[in-house]
Amino acid sequence: MIYLNNAASSWPKPECVRKAFLDYMDAPPCGQMRDSGLGETGDIPDKCRRSLGRLLGIREWQRIFFTSGATEAANLFIQGLNWEGFHALVSQTEHNSVLRPIRNHPLLQEKVTILPCDRKGYVSAESIIDAAPERAVVFINHCSNVTGTLQPMEELGAAAKKRGYLLAVDVSQSAGCVPVEGDKWQADILIITGHKSLSGLQGTGGIYIRPGLNIKPLKYGGTGKDSEKQVYQEGEYEYEPGTQNMAGIAALKAGVDHILNLGVENIHESEQRKMEWLLQELSSIRGVQLYGPGPDENRGPLAGFNMKGLSPSELSYLLAYGYEIAVRSGLQCTPLMHTALGTGALGLVRVSISHMTGMEELMALVNALKEISAGMMK
Amino acid sequence: MKITEIRNSMEQCNEAGWQAFDFFVERPLQEEDIMKLKPMGSFLYLSSLKTPFFKVDGDYFHIKGIKGNGHFRVALHREHLGYIDEIKMTAES
Q1: Best residue in A311, A317, A336, A346 for a mutation probing chain B (most B CBs within 10 Å)
Q2: What is the CATH code for A15-33+41-219+235-262?
Q3: Is B64 helix (H, G, I), strand (E, B) or coil?
C-alpha cells in the first residue's frame, strides 16, 4: 500500500517513535506529579512540553497541556471560555473539530461570523479588521487540511490584536511540517494534534493557553497535587486530571524531538519541493483540476484535486482498490471551505505526504492518474 | 454471480446523506457480472486500465467496483435504502 493520506494521520512513524512507545511499555509506569522513584521517566510530560514549546515558538511551554487530540483541545477552549460579550469570528477553512463545538455552543447561536476565504483558501486581514464585534475570538486554521493553503499568520494575528481580539490558531495540519511561531503570531490559543506531522500516536495532542487567560477545564479529577482542594477558583485551574496517556506522550516527545533534530524548515523545504513536482505533474494530466495555491506557492504538504468524469469517492476507490494507493476523498470534515472552492457536496480528492514519503510513491500516483485519465478518454 | 455478504462499508458517506455497503461476491468479479449491472443506470467501464473500473449511477444509488476484486461498493441515499434488494437481485440474476 502506498500511503498518501498523511494529513489524516501520518504513517509510517519514525523508528524512534516506535521505540519510545515500546520502551515506555517495558518500564514500570509513572504518573505525573507522582514520584515513584523511577527517575526521569516521570519527567517525560515536561520534557515533551518543552520540546513542543521550542517547535511551536512558545516561550511559556509550561502552558502547553496534553489532550487526546485537536478536537478535545478545541472543545476545552470553546466550552471553557466565558463567552459573555464575545463573538466568534471563524475562518471558512475551519475543520469540524472547531466548527461543531462553536455551532453547538448555547451562547454562540447568534454570535458567529464566518471570515470568508478566497478560491485559494486565503483569509484576509481586512475581514478581521472590518468585523463588527467589540470583543471576539478569531479562529484561524493555519494550514488548510483541504488544500494546504498556509494563512499569513503574522498579518492575521496583527489584525486580530489591532481589534483587541483573542486569537485561536489550529496548527493541527502544520505543526511538525511548517514553521509555527505561536508567540510571534500573538496566539492566545494553539490547538495541537500529535498524530499528524508531529509523528505521534492517534489519541495524543495538546493545547497552548496563554498565561492569564482563564479557561474552565472540561474535566476535573485527580492530578496528584493539592489533593485536599476540592473547588477551584479562577486562575487555579488544572487541565490534565486523571492518569495521562504517558506512553502516547513518550512517543509524542520522540516524534517532536525527531522533527527538531531534522529541522522543521528543512522538512518544509523538502516537502515543498515534492509537492511542487507533484502539482506540476498533476496539472499536466488531462481532466485533472487542482484546488488551492498554485504549484510554486508556499503550502503545507497536501493538495486537493478532482478528475473530470469521476466523483472524488470513485477516484479514491479506484486508487485504493485498483492501485493500492491510499488518499482521502470527500469534504475532509471541512464543509464550509468547499463552498469557496466550488467543490460542493462531493468535495475533492486529497493527497498528503509526510517527510517520510518517497518520490517513487508520488510517481506511482502520477502514473496511476495518467492511466486513469487516458482510460477516461477512450 | 452470488452475493455472499453485504457489509457496512468502511467508506462512510454520511456527511453527504448517503450510506455505503460492500457487496462481497463468491468469486472475483468478471466482466459478465459487471454487465449485468449496466442496465440499472448510467454506466461507465474503464476496461483499458490494468485494473478495469466500472460504475453505475442511478438517482438514489451509485455502484462502483473493479474487475477481479472480491467485492463492489454501493452507496445508497439514506432515504432509499430499499434499493439494496433490487441491486442484489439484479447482480444475482
Answers
A1: A317
A2: 3.40.640.10
A3: strand
Hey, do A2-8+264-377 and A15-33+41-219+235-262 end up sharing a CATH topology, with the first three levels equal? no
Domain locations in chain A? Answer: 2-8+264-377, 15-33+41-219+235-262
Question: How much is the pTM?
Answer: 0.95
CA A69 and chain centroid, separation: 9
**Which architecture characterizes domain A2-8+264-377 according to CATH?**
Alpha-Beta Complex (3.90)
Looking at beta carbons, which residues of chain A come within 8 Å of B49? 318, 322, 371-372, 375
Nearest residue to A101 (alpha-carbon basis) of A73, A134, A131, A122: A73
Q: C-alpha grid cell for residue A267?
A: 522538512
C-alpha to C-alpha distance for A272 and A274, rounded to whole angstroms: 5
The model's pLDDT over A2-42, given as tens digits with 9 standing for 90+, comes to 999 999 999 999 999 999 999 999 988 876 555 555 555 56
Residues 6+ apart with CB under 8 A from A93: A117, A121, A123, A140, A141, A144, A146, A149, A151, A334, A336, A337
| Contact: A346, B16; criterion CB under 8 Å | yes
